[in-house]
Amino acid sequence: MKQEFETVIIGGGAAGLMAAVSAAQRGDSVVVLEANVQLGRKILVSGNGRCNLTNIDGDNVSHFHGSNPRFIGSVLEQLPVNETLALFDDLGVVTKQEKRGRLFPQSDQARSIVDVLEDRVVQLGGQIATQARIEQLDGGDGGYEVRSGDGRLWRGDRVIMASGGISVPKLGADDSGLQLVEKLGHSRTSLYPGLVALNSDNPQVHRMQGLKVWAQVSAPLSSGRVVVDTDDLLFAKYGVSGFTILNLSAVLVDELRRGPVELSVNVLPGHSVEEVSALLKTRWERNPRRSLELSFAGLLSTKLTRPLLEGGGFERESVVQRISKAQRWQLSQLLTDWRIMVTGPRPFEYAEVTIGGVHNGEIDAQTLESYITPGLYLTGEMIDVHGDLGGFNFQWAWSSGWVAGRRLGS
Ligand SMILES: Cc1cc2nc3c(=O)[nH]c(=O)nc-3n(C[C@H](O)[C@H](O)[C@H](O)COP(=O)(O)OP(=O)(O)OC[C@H]3O[C@@H](n4cnc5c(N)ncnc54)[C@H](O)[C@@H]3O)c2cc1C
Fold first, then answer.
1. Residues lining ligand 1, CB < 6 A?
2. Mind listing the pLDDT tens digit for each residue in 268-316?
3. What is the reported pTM?
4. What is the pLDDT of residues 146-155, one digit of tens each?
5. Dihedral, CA of residue 77, residue 82, residue 87 and residue 88, to nearest 10
6. Any idea where the domains of the chain sit in the sequence?
7. What is the CATH class of 2-192+354-406?
């Protein structure tokens, strides 16, 4: 039996649920079709189960990447951060701000975000069908027919695609939604893992496996621009991770397609090479008989200094009063400009987002309706837009879902 709705939404994640609220609030009959047993699995695991649902700077286009910044800006300004927060406040979600402007629910539970969105959809008369993996989408201007793998059939005057990206397949993510819109004539970019750890062959890095330090990480881009981030840097058996790396990966993954990239790491962020040299001089004059390794006690972890000193060719047991000025300078350079070559991103299994997606030029930035096939709307991570780490990707999902749901101009 075919069920008929004004708005059929494919995908019950962040963008799909927000689109459902938006469309149902406007009076549309709505159904959300979700492949998984549960709605919003990525929301549930996000922010370590706490859901970093947006960022105080979440409508600033400079935090987003994709082929067309104007397209991104047009969507974000239709549901900016203050209006997103008002919307969540109306749903009962009190938010709190953490470092770098990141906003979390006061409950510290991602579950609450899924629960309140689902509840609002249902209260507004919307329907939800889970275990409905959509495998067929046909139609055009006059409406669409949507069929799930198990043969259930829906008809919609319009369809909102919200099937997300392909990162973390174990959460059910795949390219089935992208394939559906490609069959209707859309095209997409190549896809890459984003907000992801990076591989490195550096043996010093491997030796520091498990260590997390506060560091400034910078990297030159082929455009001449240098990207910089100061936060956690985590060493792993495959390479580097932590907030700095995940965040920089939003732009570095693209750069890595052209070849390895040399990171510059300052393990004493905020200090120049001159300042570090002066700092070491003072410390060494105060305790001249200490070994080089011990001279860092209380300043840097031995888990960091030991491999760093050895890798840099310094004798750990050298007594500091015998170390020359030139060697002190060389060591200060190592501490402020330690070079780590990274070779590529970890695979999609470990990536928070997908870089790339449906070409923005095929979508109306005001409404998110397809230029290729009228009545089809595209939202969220399946579009060629991704944000920095820190709540920006959810902001994109909320804003784009809201815009598509509202059906401007009709
Ligand atoms: C581990 C992890 C942590 C993250 N943490 C954060 C964070 O704290 N802050 C932040 O801003 N971003 C975070 N993200 C990114 C964020 O989760 C995504 O950018 C966001 O969920 C994208 O929303 P979406 O609705 O486009 O896609 P999704 O939320 O992925 O929703 C897509 C939905 O469509 C369904 N679907 C797919 N294909 C079909 C089909 N054929 N038929 C029916 N249903 C289908 C999927 O099952 C899924 O439920 C995180 C991501 C991961 C993986």
1. 10-16, 33-36, 41-42, 45-47, 51-52, 132-134, 162-164, 167-168, 172-173, 176-177, 352-353, 380-381, 391-394, 397
2. 999 999 999 999 999 999 999 999 999 999 999 999 999 999 989 999 9
3. 0.96
4. 999 999 999 9
5. 120
6. 2-192+354-406, 197-345
7. alpha beta
